[in-house]
TrEMBL record:
<feature type="domain" description="Ku">
    <location>
        <begin position="58"/>
        <end position="187"/>
    </location>
</feature>
<dbReference type="GO" id="GO:0003690">
    <property type="term" value="F:double-stranded DNA binding"/>
</dbReference>
<keyword id="KW-0238">DNA-binding</keyword>
<comment type="subunit">
    <text>Homodimer. Interacts with LigD.</text>
</comment>
<protein>
    <recommendedName>
        <fullName>Non-homologous end joining protein Ku</fullName>
    </recommendedName>
</protein>
<dbReference type="Pfam" id="PF02735">
    <property type="entry name" value="Ku"/>
</dbReference>
<comment type="function">
    <text>With LigD forms a non-homologous end joining (NHEJ) DNA repair enzyme, which repairs dsDNA breaks with reduced fidelity. Binds linear dsDNA with 5'- and 3'- overhangs but not closed circular dsDNA nor ssDNA. Recruits and stimulates the ligase activity of LigD.</text>
</comment>
<dbReference type="GO" id="GO:0006310">
    <property type="term" value="P:DNA recombination"/>
</dbReference>
<feature type="region of interest" description="Disordered">
    <location>
        <begin position="265"/>
        <end position="319"/>
    </location>
</feature>
<keyword id="KW-0234">DNA repair</keyword>
<feature type="compositionally biased region" description="Low complexity">
    <location>
        <begin position="294"/>
        <end position="312"/>
    </location>
</feature>
<dbReference type="InterPro" id="IPR009187">
    <property type="entry name" value="Prok_Ku"/>
</dbReference>
<dbReference type="InterPro" id="IPR016194">
    <property type="entry name" value="SPOC-like_C_dom_sf"/>
</dbReference>
<dbReference type="GO" id="GO:0006303">
    <property type="term" value="P:double-strand break repair via nonhomologous end joining"/>
</dbReference>
<dbReference type="InterPro" id="IPR006164">
    <property type="entry name" value="DNA_bd_Ku70/Ku80"/>
</dbReference>
<comment type="similarity">
    <text>Belongs to the prokaryotic Ku family.</text>
</comment>
<keyword id="KW-0227">DNA damage</keyword>
Length: 319
């Protein structure tokens, strides 16, 4: 089964080529379903995080002491400040600026990086959107464009799919490796006619329509089945919360030890008034709950009856 449609708008702008301006929105076309594991301490079942440490000393580095450096030569770096990096960021025009139309077959698949579904924004974009999609479909062309998403400039390919458009972010030319030196068959490798015929017969025998639902991530399915089995067999382990995290509230059980531990680790002077106030609120709420039936019964009585049934206050004897 395909992943559900994403209605979340990730980017809003327009497609532009020549004098044509089509308002559009981008939506994620893929979903990540790989198994994600958390690192845990085997003995305490607490989470283990990734910490930025100095590789020479092994000590943790405070964020304000970390700078960004670009390695020009071996062990030779140039440090860039946040302001210098900010000045080099591309100017966002919120536009998918098509710079050329090329044949679809001319773009190698190794350039494909990440696809997005493109949707027209508003009623005004419906007709020009349909016109562009139909034109690309009839001509067999795709639009090569530049677009800025999340402060990063991308090369992209705009192509028709079904009744809509797909914007596939492309890799830049210097990101695709050269094939020189790979052991690909040369002109000296000859394939006989008999071998080619048998290979074609095998392909024809295995030929069929593209049905992505027939293919599954067997590794993920086996792991998920194992997780479900171990969960049913009592293999669940409670992970202790990190310091500073909120302890889930419970209407039945209050872990006093945990509350005391967290209070001791925090600022006791500041926590005490807050805890006292919270306790007072809980006691007041409990008192109100207990007095509610009495208040309801009193409300049903007439004022005269209520006064008659009221008992005089008992004075406390001074000791």
């Amino acid at each position: 089964m395909p992943a559900p449609t994403s209605s979340r708008t990730l980017w809003k702008g327009a497609i532009s080529f020549g004098l044509v301006h089509i308002p559009v929105t981008l939506h994620s076309a893929t979903a990540e379903n790989r198994m994600k594991f958390n690192l845990l301490d085997k003995s305490t079942m607490t989470r283990v995080g990734n910490q930025q440490v100095n590789k020479a000393t092994g000590e943790a580095m405070p964020r304000e002491e970390i700078v960004k450096g670009f390695e020009v030569e071996k062990d030779q770096y140039v440090v860039l400040t946040p302001d210098e990096i900010k000045q080099a960021l591309p100017r966002s025009t919120q536009t998918i600026e098509i710079e050329a139309f090329v044949d679809r077959e001319q773009v190698p698949s190794v350039f494909f990086h990440k696809p997005y579904f493109v949707s027209p924004a508003g009623k005004g974009g419906q007709k020009p959107f349909a016109l562009l999609r139909e034109t690309l479909e009839r001509t067999g062309k795709v639009g090569i464009a530049k677009v800025v998403i999340s402060t990063k400039q991308h090369l992209a390919m705009l192509l028709p799919q079904d009744k809509g458009l797909v914007l596939n972010l492309l890799r830049w030319s210097d990101e695709v490796r050269d094939t020189a030196g790979l052991a690909w068959p040369g002109e000296d490798v000859k394939v006989s006619a008999a071998e080619l015929k048998m290979a074609e017969q095998l392909v024809d025998a295995m030929a069929g329509d593209w049905q992505p639902d027939l293919f599954h991530d067997e590794f993920r399915e086996k792991l998920m089945a194992l997780v479900e089995q171990k969960s049913k067999e009592g293999g669940l382990h409670a992970v202790a919360p990190l310091p500073g995290e909120d302890v889930p509230a419970s209407a039945e059980v209050i872990d006093l030890t945990e509350l005391l531990r967290r209070s001791l680790k925090g600022n006791t002077a500041q926590s005490a008034p807050a805890a006292k106030k919270a306790t007072a609120k809980r006691e007041e709420a409990a008192a109100n709950d207990e007095a509610a039936p009495v208040r309801k019964a009193a409300a049903r009585k007439t004022p005269a009856t209520a006064r008659a049934s009221a008992k005089p206050a008992t004075r406390r004897k001074s000791g």
